[in-house]
Write a structure and sequence with these properties.
single chain, 244 residues, Alpha-Beta Plaits, 2 domains, 10-stranded mixed β-sheet, globular, EC 5.4.99.12
């Protein structure tokens, strides 16, 4: 039995997230159906995590096991011929037996992108959160600095998060301007449900002057006692890379 590791890029606009569910078409479903066609049998694909409806990925890592002699390259070139235009296998590799994309991961890099143009952009609507008005980037950077380190992020998760612990280590939170776009790059050991989107929403609140840098510090030193900012829309979020 071989273990094949895939690195996937996808546009999540038309999908109900990564994980298979009864109420919509998902990335996992489409990939498994393509593999089933190639291998002539059902295949279960395990991923490094779940992305919600509308969220994108440049470096989602997934893996599956199969008893096949098909060359590894076929799981990129051949599989891509069966996948729709909004999902692609960037790379395929043979992994060691027992490789688990989720539990073997040591960290992840997410990027949240904000469009700061005076008017909404039809071309950006599926990939950014349009935030009108100016943002105080200096204040946002100070607030982002509060998030770096090991903290209890209980205030930065949504209802339904089943994580056993809310303590997470964030290695960096960086802001980068690209014309009207503002990228928020977050790297860390792991994330709670909607954690990055709530971090982004909280930073935007700071940038708008709706909360102070001190308020953000309280969210981390007194977790659960204060409400974080809004959960930013899903389309601005992209999983950039998973580290091993």
């Amino acid at each position: 039995m071989r273990t094949i590791k895939l690195i996937l890029e996808y546009d999540g606009t038309n999908y109900a997230g990564w994980q298979i569910q009864p109420n919509g078409v998902t990335i996992q479903q489409v990939v498994e159906e393509a593999l089933a066609t190639m291998l002539k049998g059902a295949v279960r694909v395990h991923s490094s995590g779940r992305t919600d409806a509308g969220v994108h990925a440049r470096g989602m890592v997934a893996a599956f096991s199969a008893d096949t002699g098909i060359p590894v390259r076929a799981f990129s070139d051949g599989l891509n011929a069966l996948l729709p235009p909004d999902i692609v296998v960037v790379e395929a590799h043979e992994a060691r037996p027992g490789f688990n994309p989720r539990f073997d991961a040591t960290g992840k890099h997410y990027r949240y992108t904000i469009h700061r143009g005076a008017r909404r952009s039809p071309l950006c609507r599926h990939y950014t959160w349009h935030v009108r008005g100016g943002l105080d980037l200096a204040a946002m950077e100070r607030a982002a600095g509060c998030m770096v380190g090991e903290h209890d992020f209980a205030s930065f998760r949504t209802t339904g998060c089943a994580a056993r612990t809310t303590v997470r280590r964030i290695d960096s939170v960086g802001l980068a301007e690209e014309g009207d776009l503002l990228h928020i790059d977050v790297k860390g050991s792991g994330f709670l449900r909607n954690m990055v989107r709530i971090m982004a929403g909280t930073l935007v609140d700071v940038g708008r002057g709706r909360r102070s840098v001190g308020d953000v510090a309280l969210l981390l030193t007194q977790p659960g006692e204060h409400a974080a900012g809004p959960t930013a829309p899903p389309q601005g979020l992209c999983l950039m890379e998973v580290y091993y």
